[in-house]
Specification:
The chain is mainly alpha-helical. It is 40% helix and 2% strand. It has six helices and two strands. The relative contact order is 0.14. It has one domain. Helix 1 packs across helix 3.
């Protein structure tokens, strides 16, 4: 069974553009090799200005932007609005605009993980984005070694659930040395 895609839905395009615009005119060090992502200069004043502008445009009043070494963006969308499609399109746009080629997608539950994996591996998804961007996603899925039913144990070792930040996964780092 394939997916039926509606291109250019305004609420999805707005979300994608908000993420892409976050890095507009922010200083960037180009990638050192094809295995690494470019590095954004997180102390660039344009980064905070861009985030504040996006918050104002979207009438977001709670929270000041915080930039630290573990910089991440939280994008919130309602149920049923096409989050998986939107962040997939965002990956392609960030690749097109800033040459970012490695992304980590974390999801809160096993069913959402399986749905995301199914979506990203779907032939219709791959064809849809290849037609739009001329590229396909190469997907690496990390599985927890611990089969416990406790929610916090579903994440692979090295990703602290319920905490801010990210630590390097040894097996992942061996395959992808830039992390």
């Amino acid at each position: 069974m394939g997916f039926n895609f509606e291109r250019n839905l305004p609420h999805q395009d707005k979300a994608v553009q908000a993420v892409v615009e976050t890095f507009k005119e922010v200083s960037i060090n180009r990638r050192k090799n094809s295995m690494c992502n470019p590095e954004f200069y997180l102390k660039d004043s344009n980064l905070i200005r861009n985030i504040k502008t996006i918050q104002e445009q979207n009438e977001i009043q709670d929270g000041q932007p915080v930039v630290n070494p573990f910089f991440n963006l939280d994008i919130k969308m309602e149920t049923g609005t096409g989050k998986t499609y939107t962040y997939t399109k965002t990956l392609f746009e960030l690749n097109k605009e800033y040459d970012i080629n490695k992304f980590i997608i974390l999801v809160p539950t096993i069913p959402i993980k399986l749905g995301t994996e199914q979506f990203l591996k779907s032939p219709s998804t791959r064809l849809h984005f290849k037609e739009q961007y001329g590229k396909e996603i190469s997907l690496e899925v990390l599985n927890s070694k611990n089969k416990s039913k406790k929610k916090k144990e579903h994440f692979p070792l090295g990703v602290p659930s319920g905490k801010c930040g990210f630590t390097t996964l040894r097996s992942f780092a061996r395959r992808f040395p830039c992390f």
